[in-house]
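Bug #2210: token dump truncated for 6-hydroxymethylpterin diphosphokinase MptE-like domain-containing protein?
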Amino acid sequence: MAKKKAKDYGYDTLSALHGIIHRDSHKFLDFSNTRTLDNLAPVWIKNMGKNQKNRMWKKHGSFVRACHTLGRDKAIIAVGSGPSLNKNSDVLKFIHDNDSVRNWEDRNFIIFSSNHQFKPLLKMGVIPDFVYLVDASDVVYKQLCEDIPENGKSCILVAPYHADPKVLKEWTRQGRGVLFFLSHGSRMKEAFRKTVKKNPTPHTIVAGGNVLNTMWMFGAKIFQSKVFMCIGNDLSFPIKKVKKDQERGYYADGDYSTNAPGTGTGRDEAACEKKWLSFKIQNRNIYIPGQNELEVVGADVVGTSHTLWVYKTWMEESMLLITHAKKDLGLHYYNCTEGGILGVMAKSLDEPEMKKDSNWYMMDEVCKRWHTTTLEHAATQFLQAKEKIRWEKVGTLIGVQDAIKSVHPN
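Reproduced locally. Full output below:
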């Protein structure tokens, strides 16, 4: 009997990935997505039922409908909680203070926050426009519901309808709004149809596994923003001799409680022993006119986990497929994290090759819409591009007016 061919999850048809995203990585990615849905669906469906009893959908409504096209001429700045965030905080505060005072139609940026970074941002004086939640457990209660500064009253939570009922109820009681989406998957759709008595399709959207990837997906698909800038998306942590030091270095604010055994999810990713190469951004020693004055180079070996590595691979694979699609969507991904492993690629996963400098390269080399830079440079480039487009439109309008005058001088 012929041996059954292993499922390859369509890798052979995805030529944009070949030689960049390894076959085994792609297979592991798809397997992880399926396993997550299978394991968590019963809890998610139970939460959905409780939220419907609390009339949450009627009180708040659909994220997809409320935010459609809100970001068409704006850039998204997505804020994660990785340790490199501290390198970007001053620039983020400057952008916020100068842009958030504008009327919405005149705004250049929309600030998304992860649930972990919600309170730290408020304490910095940065008020995110939207706070994103993908975790369905109650370990986020303290982050979202306890000791919230007064300046967070107007923040809107974007959450799956299967999020923890206790968290949603308290967030609502404190007077803040929620917008709901429905996670992709036949079981979740069917549960929504039975529980809410509505068609799930208009409210369903594919998320990205973790909160930063979800922000990118929603920013592009729902807000219809072409430019996404992420900070604090390290997907890794500095390796230390003492595990407690490793835990303190996992998040920008040093609070590991939601990840730790006993107090959090128990994932305890700072205890994982998987390693990858990180990068850093520095000024070039020799500047050549016309060349970017910033240089991206390999840095230290850092710790990561299989889960974090899946998030990294999902984002890289998604951008490769979109960039090489027949229809050019014009999406740009600015990795402004200034550290971590996102966008750091390996030609070979064999251990001897992994030790060679020649094995490593940056995603920018193979994906023209991927940009590894600082938040300051990304924001400046975006504003310059907007100004150029504005003047081109003015020039076109003047040209049309001149043409009309030549035909109808009076």
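Output looks complete on our side. Residues 180 and 304 are 31 Å apart (CA to CA). Marking as cannot-reproduce; reopen if the truncation happens again.
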